[in-house]
Predict the structure.
Amino acid sequence: MPAVPRDLTAWWRTFHDPVLDHLVERAAADNLTLAQARARLVAGRAQASAAHSLFLPTLGAGGTAVAATPKIDNSDPLRRPLMAGFDMSWDVGLFGLSENTARSADAGEAVLAADVEAVQVAMTAEVASAYISLRAVQQQQALAAALVSAQRRRMQGGAALVHSGLATSAAQMEVAATVAEAEAEQASLEARASALRQQIATLLGTSTPDPALLRAGDQPQSTQAPNASRPNDLLRARPDVRAAEQKVLEAAAEIGIAQAGLYPRLRLVGTIGVGAPFTNSPFGVAGGPVLEIPLLDYGRRLAAVRARQALYDEAVAAYQQSVLLAYQEAVTAQAQWRASRAATVQQRSALKASERKAREMHVLNGEGLADRGQVAEADAGVLDRRRRLVLARETEALSLAAFYKAIGGASASAAVAGPR
């Protein structure tokens, strides 16, 4: 599968939020899960490097000396139990053993690299999602406080109507229940905000929330829409799909390694030394080929080949399954983003209608044609619509983050501007 040009450091910047940019940068540097994945990649690279040198000639030096008291004094040092020299060994790696070992190591390293990228994509989406939700909760907290105030004014206006006999106490009790409910929601929102701040701190590898998160801020809103008319093209950016592909290549190489075990194995060895066992000259050379020919193993090597072939079939099926799941997630996330954006537009229109009604009520109140309770009710309706718009914007932003996560963190094509 050919690579698709993409940028993993841009999608969240469409929100134009400096605090979010700072949090993502901190998480990329300090996230502990990402640090673990990077450490595994370093280990994998070291193992891959060692695998590439596995079938190269090796050279070692050594010496042996044994003290003894012979019956006959021998002044010739070369005839004493002494040996020192260099040993050479070379496993030739015939029948594709060397090549397949290198391919298997390279594929294993590529899997670890894809895992690092997968962790980075998921971590970025989690930071962005938690931040989006936190800002939405903070907006809801402000609206809840304003709603409590509006409902109290409505309750005061209703009390005057009840006193004059123009309203029943049941309606007043309903307003009181609404006030109590809004006050309870304030406590719940504060608890959720605290939990989200702590979640972001954990993603940043610390236990202390960032001070910028203690202050309320505007909701992140993207001014761009991803151009993803063909999600199947974007699957090439998914780290898990690429990892599954590399696992297929690794399994194929393992078949070649197992098949090489069915054939003879050649190793060249040699020694250059002084002393025993070279007793007739100061220096000596010894060496030659070592050939290992498999004859009888009761089918163990054939069983190993069949096992590797079965594991290859499993890897192919896993790759196909990962492609299908990735496509499903991408299509679903794309549909959810479109639906959430449409809902945001509808909530914005509803808010404008509520604001017009509230302005009319204020005008009527100034003319003496509407009481304070009706004005407070209209103001409460505006606040409720604003709360619904906050939730709709949160859902839209979260669905955008989910969409970018589903396509591997970046779109294969440039984003296009969308109406706000």
